[in-house]
Amino acid sequence: MSNLFFCCLQTRQKFRIRSRISVLLTFATTALLVVAGASVHAQFGAPSPGTVIHDATALKPPAGARVAIVEFADLECPSCAYYNKQFEEAAAAYKIPWVHHDFLIPGHLWSTAAAVNVRWFNTKSKALGDEYRDQVFANQASIYNLDTLRRFTEKFAQSHSIALPFAIDPQGKLAAEVKADSDLGLHTGITGTPTVFVVTANSKGAPYIEVPRPYNQLYPIIDQALADTVSAKPVVAKRPAGK
After folding, report:
1. How far is residue 71's CA from residue 103's CA, in Å, rounded to a whole number?
2. What is the CATH number of domain 67-228?
């Protein structure tokens, strides 16, 4: 009798253990299916709608142009550096303006100072400011703090026979311009960099189109913008009264 009792007890215990294992496996399988389903949804879900524009004032070509590239960038942003050459080549190939806006990313160590430097070189010539900006992007990997930025800037100035002052922006005017430019991006609705648009004047199509993937979308979007504005007259700058 005792042996039979212990045998039944052991059988019941084995059954309970197997039942618990079965329940645990069921829960685990269900959890995996839920995670897999979420992963599939994330992978094949609807694409991002893009930047939500609050104010399109900045998304217009300069006076006299019917199509332009408008870019919001941070000089410390790796993706901005990566695409910089492509934007330059596209603007040159199509002979359209390329408008730069500073959009400062919080936490970046030296991009604000670099943006101020660009504007200081702009006071010498716009071409010199553009070259400095391009060179910062080209050498971005070797610039990792304010000291390396200073040395890079000194070397750039020396290569152009320009004496760099001890204080680039003693009154903070250039820094105020950079901040105002960045605030313009926030007011527009920009949230990250690079954010790029092809903008048009008097277009039969969209007045501006965001370019989320410049590597394969920039040229087709410019082509479309030019086609949509082929009969449009360039925007002429308004002259002051009496001029």
Report:
1. 9
2. 3.40.30.10
Buried b vs exposed e over 136-160: b needs ≥16 C-beta within 10 Å?
A: bbeebeebeeeeebbebbeebbeee
Classified as helix, coil or strand, 67 is strand
pLDDT in tens, 88-118: 999 999 999 999 999 999 999 999 999 999 9
Q: How far is Cα 66 from Cα 239, in angstroms, rounded to an integer?
A: 19
| Distance from the Cα of residue 230 to its chain's centroid | 29
Q: What angle do CA 26, 28, 33 make, to 5 degrees?
A: 95
Predicted structure pTM score: 0.75
Domain ranges of the chain: 1-38, 67-228
Residues 6+ apart with CB under 8 A from 156: 132, 135
Low-confidence ranges of the chain (pLDDT < 50): 1-19, 21-48, 235-240, 242-243
CB 239 within 8 A of CB 227: no
Count of other CB atoms within 10 angstroms of residue 15: 10
Q: Helix %, strand %, coil % for the chain, to 5?
A: 55, 10, 35
How far apart (Å, rounded) are the C-alpha atoms in residues 121 and 99? 17
Which residue in the block uniquely carries the two structure tokens 């949804």?
Answer: 41
**Sheet architecture: strand order including 195-200:** 98-102, 67-73, 195-200, 208-210
Q: In 16-161, which ranges are E strands?
A: 67-73, 98-102
